Amino acid sequence: MAAELVRGQNHPLTRTRLEIRVSAGHPVVAGATLADDRGTVRGPERVAHPGAPALPGLEVSRQAAADHRLAVDLDAMPPDVHRVTVLLALPVGTGGPTRFGAVAAPFVAVTGLDGTEVAGFTLTDLDTESAVTALELYRRQGAWKVRAVGQGYADGLAALFADQGVPDAHALAGAVHDAVARGLARTVAAPPHPADEAQVRTAATAGHASAPLPPTASAIPGAAPGTPIDYTHPARQAPPHPAAAPPAEPGRFAAPVAGDATGWTMEERLYNQVWGMFEDLARTTAAYRSAVDFADSRMEQELDRAVFGLSDPRSRLGGRADAAREAAEVKHTALVDRAREALDRDLAQLVAESEVVEPALPAAYAGWDNPCWHAYRSPMELPMAVRLGELRLPESDSVALRIPMLVRLPLERGLWIDAGSSGADALVDADDLRARAARLAAELAARLLGAYPAGEFSVHVVDPAGTAAGALAPLVDAGVLAGPVARGAVGVAETLTRLTERVDLVQMAVRSGAADALPADLDVAEQLLIVHDFPHGFDDRAVTRLRYLADEGPQVGVHLMLVADREDAAEYGPLLDPLWRALLRLTPLPDEHLADPWVGHAWTYEPPSVPPGSAVLRQVLAEVARARRERGL
Questions:
Q1: Segment 162-174, tens digit of pLDDT
Q2: How confident is the model at residue 317 (pLDDT cuts 50, 70, 90)?
Q3: How far apart are CA 382 and CA 262, in angstroms?
Q4: 3-class secondary-structure state, position 550
Q5: φ/ψ (deg, to 5) at 147
Q6: What is the predicted pLDDT for the residue at 212?
Q7: Once rounded to an integer, what is the mean pLDDT over residues 513-520?
Q8: Is the alpha carbon torsion for 324, 325, 331, 334 positive or negative?
């Protein structure tokens, strides 16, 4: 039975290969320090964190996440390590909570590799602290124990490291937060927590007497007055009497239904269902990988005991050793096969769900090959999200399972279409890669234009050298751009000046509470600036303005889409690091670079692709142009 620890309590450890599992309910940084018998950490090289995740006998997560699994092998620790301290910290500069008192109490568990919990500890009574030592594994008289600590630090990681004697603690804390920022830059943002959604709805309806309220059965003909409405999908609602429930067939899962998720509208249900599929695939893959790691570790231990434990070294090469190896391999194969069976069962269910969900998706969520585009009409309301591509994991390739990558609208961060080469496209010609990046930018712009109601989204394009003329032709020919494509350094300067002035004006109006004082000719639509072939045509002043737009623009409806090869901007050095981190990186070819917000898997991003020979892109843009003309725009 697992021990539930309280602050200061300890518990013996009977095994040396362990996992430290963290459940926080909100993204946190997880790390660990290795200290000597006096509790001193001798230097940064004894600290495992997202920027340096692996040390002898220890491996931690590479990014901030709500859930973590830290791998610990106490037998592999250096002889002078007597204490392993697990630490948690809130990410800095992300706009999220800055103190643990504002989030749910984290839970930390010590488990075996098979998931069996040894001891657990809930970190309660935290308030202004932004970093905390959760627990420590310590060696005493040759035996290891775990102790619940729960020591918080209001001054963050720097104070925590300094307390453990780490030299130059502030520099190390800064390095940790920089690594976390790089990791978060590649993470697909999770949807708001349902509680947050409820608060948004409450705030939105509080000031409007005519705002619709959740109906009761009294509003529905034939229903008993005052009975709350069951918003569950009809195929998932409980039968009126238990006897009416059809018996579940053993070994089979319930038939999937499109819209089988919470939500007030079918669009919201589908959005939440897609995100549920995303999370399910992430977690079932994590369980499979953990089971395989356990099988590998168990086989290694059994081989160590059976082969190297033989008293006569000569017998290690004989029949007994061969039999021991064969037995260990058979057990390993059985464990991996069982894990694969569970994974395949979950994948089959997700594939079945995907097959009913994909055809039901509205245009904003659908792939270009979805028939819904043939009946596309400019929407009257802004959808919750837009599809920017698809995501997959290696384990799901065998069943061709892809998860739609839905990003909330309005965009919370800009987009970076990476025109540089990576491992996945090393054999692709550089010019072809740049052309693909330009086409992807045009297709994503068309998707955004098609998602917004007519006149509520304006697109500006800067193409200093005119090298993207072919890719931009559908946008130009349809007449859906806010103005001519800006060319040369002069065009760059004029466009950036106009948009930065707009950001300044709106910010001042919002801060002073005088939104009605904005100029009458100000375009109040959301703005998207596409910058092609950055930094060509940019001087230092233009680069500074671009960084300003990336940082301040999204808050007032000005968004950035950068088409660039980072190597082309290498001369700016670390000056542009904040710019790259502020943008969500997308690639014109499939590339494994995005991460989920739950367990931090590396997901392969696949860009949206218009079917060969299809005119769907131009048809959508033609409809956008028609709707704009009807509104006199």
A1: 999 999 999 999 9
A2: low
A3: 20
A4: helix
A5: -125, 135
A6: 37
A7: 77
A8: negative
Q: What's the pTM?
A: 0.75
CB 65 within 8 A of CB 22: no
Task: Specify whether the CB–CB gap between 525 and 457 falls below 8 A.
Answer: yes
Mapped to the 3 state alphabet, what secondary structure does 282-308 carry? HHHHHHHHHHHHHHHHHHHHHHHHHCC
Pairing of strands 107-112, 47-48: unpaired
Pairing mode, strands 403-408 and 385-392: antiparallel
What amino acid occupies position 572? Y
Helices 319-357, 266-306: crossing angle, 10 deg rounding? 180
Give the max Cα distance, the chain.
Answer: 92
Distances (CA, A) of 22 to 33, 74, 87, 598, 602: 16, 19, 10, 11, 19
Per-residue pLDDT tens over the stretch 360-381: 999 999 999 999 999 999 999 9
Contact 447, 388 (CB under 8 A): yes
Looking up tokens 């946190």 gives 28
- Report residue 262 CA to chain centroid gap: 21
pLDDT for 591-612, tens place per residue? Answer: 998 988 877 788 999 999 999 9
Q: What are phi and psi of 566, to 5 degrees?
A: -60, -30
What radius of gyration do the chain's Cα atoms show? 28
Q: Amino acid identity, residue 496?
A: L
Identity of the residue numbered 405: M
Beta bridge partners of 376: none
Query: Judging by DSSP bridges, how do beta strands 591-595 and 602-606 pair with one another?
Result: antiparallel
Tokens encoding 300: 């290694």
Q: In what order do the strands lie in the sheet with 403-408?
A: 403-408, 385-392, 602-606, 591-595
Query: Where is 594: in which H helix or E strand?
Result: strand 591-595
The confidence band for 346, taking pLDDT boundaries of 50, 70 and 90, is very high
Going by C-beta distance under 8 Å and a sequence separation of 6 or more, which residues neighbour residue 501?
none
